[in-house]
Amino acid sequence: MSIVEDAKKGIITEEMKVVAAQEGVTEDFIRRGIASGRIVIPVSPYRKVKLCGIGGGLRTKVNCSVGTSTDIVDVDMEVEKVKAGERAGADTIMELSTGGDFVEIRRRCIEATTLSVGSVPLYQAFIEAARKDGAVIHMREDDLFRITEEQAKLGTNFMAIHTGINRITLERLQRQGRHGGLCSRGGAFLTAWMLHNDKENPLYAEFDYLCEILKEHEVTLSTGNGMRAGAVHDATDRAQIQELIINAELGDRAHEMGIQVIVEGPGHVPLDEIETNVKLMKRMSGNKPFYMLGPIVTDIAPGYDDRVSAIGAAMSSMYGADFICYVTPAEHLALPNPEEVYEGVISSRIAAHVGDMIKLNKRDQDLAMGHARRDLDWEAQFNLAINPSRARQIRSERASADTDACTMCGDYCALKIANKVIKKLD
Ligand code: SF4
């Protein structure tokens, strides 16, 4: 029986108990969330992981993606990136390699982490076809399903699967055009394959067969967002919404079959369209956990896209996104290194927290930090910081002669002066 079937029968599993304790909610809240499709706990029968609940009423989670490219295949570096992501506080890892030995890289990345791991099986299917037969358009449909099963058996907890790109979605895309093209590799592979072969997307046409595989191996389905905008000028366009409608319908079907479902979202979205996107996703999908990719809110800041996406992620979380895919400073420029992975996760964690301050009214840590700053209690400030080592390092590098104050104001520390005359609130 799957965790969804357990939940529907009123059974509270060990996983539900662990997540309830982590989140400070009742076990039945988690059970009802899974039964209704509002919450998922990505599990795998092949691997024990640090459990992570994603969905309505829970802390916003952050994913850290790693993976080789065709240009840079350094498995040790990918393992370092997995470790950097986990050290920075990511809740999940996605292994998205497109170069090298897929099975070996995934196996080593999975071994390097205690977190749930996600994948995109179609990358391997298309790239193996390109290696063997010269182009992705030669991908064999059976390989999509075979590789999905093989990756599940490696202990993959969730998979982004591009189910919502069908002939109607492509028609819409071709009719309207795009300012920024397609930025989803999965979306681009499938589009090329479908148009060249004049065939329906096998992941859509044989969705029930796909679900049988996912159910057998308890994989959480993340409905891929292949039509997401790659430029803010394409945000919320017809192709993206068409894909969402299909994914929402398929998400319901998968959940009825006993599969946990996450719905993926865009992409590049200007600030004034974020609320619409979150609410549309939630409304159409029946409040399934919403996985926001980024979003990038302006296209003109390469080198700083971790911060650009943190602005969008904070708003997304505030309006109800449950899961944020981090972005690194190297986005749009190069494959990230471990330091950039670390920075990207920290930026997204800040954004998720900022959203949760509104969405879940989670402000205790901020209140404690306010008191620690007022009291010039530096150890407490470090311990409350999202990245204690960075805060500690900056202070120690530029220490003040006055050990209570810092070198910003030195002898004229406003807090020291004011603390003598202002009543302290607890
Ligand atoms: S010196 Fe200035 S910046 Fe530093 S703790 Fe005091 S008031 Fe704050």
Describe this structure in words.
- It is globular and about 75 Å long.
- It is α/β, with parallel strands linked by helices and 426 residues long.
- Helix 12 (238-256) links the parallel strand 7 and strand 8.
- It has helices at 3-8, 14-23, 27-36, 75-87, 102-111, 121-133, 141-153, 167-176, 185-197, 202-205, 207-216, 238-256, 271-285, 305-319, 338-359, 364-374, 378-384, 388-397, 414-419; strands spanning 39-40, 54-55, 61-66, 92-95, 116-119, 158-161, 220-223, 261-265, 290-293, 323-325.
- It contains 19 helices and ten strands.
- The strands form two sheets. Strands 3-4-5-6-7-8-9-10 form an eight-stranded parallel beta barrel, surrounded by seven helices. It has a two-stranded antiparallel ribbon with strand order 1-2.
- It has two domains: 58-359, Radical SAM ThiC family, central domain (TIM Barrel, Alpha-Beta Barrel), CATH 3.20.20; 364-419, no CATH class.
- Helix content is 51%, strand content 9%.
- Helix 14 (305-319) runs parallel beside helix 15.
- Residues 405-406, 408-409, 413-415 line the site of iron/sulfur cluster.
